[in-house]
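Thread: EAL domain-containing protein, structure

OP (GT): Posting the sequence first so everyone is looking at the same thing. Length is 288 residues per the record. Can we get the structure tokens written out before standup tomorrow? I want them in the notebook alongside the other entries.
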Amino acid sequence: HVKSSGKGGFQLYTEELGQALRFRREIEEYLRQANFDQELYLVFQPQIDLHRQRIQAYEVLVRWHHSGQDISPNDFISIAEDMGIIRHIDRWVLKKAIEQTQSWLPDDTRLSVNISAVEFNQHDLIPYIKKTLDEYQFSAKKLELEITETALISDFKTVYTKLKELNDLGITIAIDDFGVGHSSLARLKDLPFHKLKIDRSFITEIQSDEKQKSIVKAIVGLAYYLELDTIVEGVESQQQVEILQALGCYVFQGHHFSKPLKSNEALLFSPSKFKNIILKDMPKSRNV
Ligand code: C2E
Ligand code: MG
Ligand code: MG
Ligand code: MG
């Protein structure tokens, strides 16, 4: 009896593994053939500064529509990284994001673009960014890059130099998914970046989970002493907003405020329109 159930479990396991592998192969194949201009598109999710009652930035998120279905970035970004084609995707995204928003994006609002750790470590990333900004006459002050802790673990001097150069250009740097990666505090304290993006996993149960609250409180404290800004991602309810505000957070991104929008919808989501929504639905921040 023990044997047969063990064997059944093993079969189930190999079957799942086989399925995952087939799925991966399929994605690889699709990616190799993908025509970016036809299959990729962008959505923009507002990042809201409740103190200043304005949209601070729009995060640019890539979408992939392949033969009638949408494939999630969670399912293809890491594969694209392994295949060595993430650089083409991230560069396409940067270019198109600027192209699609430059006619309406206000001067004091940034585009926040995700840069894979693999792409961040490419030698020609900065020249590409410079060239693209030049080409569209897009101010570096309007560009923010979201990188994960993984991007920061290679040789300290190389990472430092790269961040410094981006800083000097006027580009804002945020650490995405902060708290779930592998960076050391010793290293973080010496690196030039601007912002911690508190990972969604720390706020999902913040209404009831004291430990999540403690973690967010600790991150906010860390940010305060290191003179960094914070933003919370994945905010889905008013209750979360209130708890997070009490903990000292005031910049938010999440479905509670807006889902990621197509450029023509994001444009209508103007700060002045949005102001009313905030004023109507939000209590005044306790920190103002
Ligand atoms: P991320 O950078 O942490 O982006 C936030 C993710 O959370 C997005 O998922 C967004 O749609 C989702 N999200 C926003 N608000 C909420 C909310 O209230 N609740 C929940 N449950 N989710 C929310 P998405 O668009 O599926 O992207 C997943 C990940 O794929 C991103 O995580 C990012 O790491 C990566 N990604 C997306 N676009 C790009 C890109 O152009 N380049 C690179 N390198 N990675 C990208
Ligand atoms: Mg991001
Ligand atoms: Mg994130
Ligand atoms: Mg995340």
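GT: Both are above now. Quick notes for whoever picks this up: Residues 126 and 162 are 8 Å apart (CA to CA). Residues 1-5, 279-288 have pLDDT under 50 and may be disordered.
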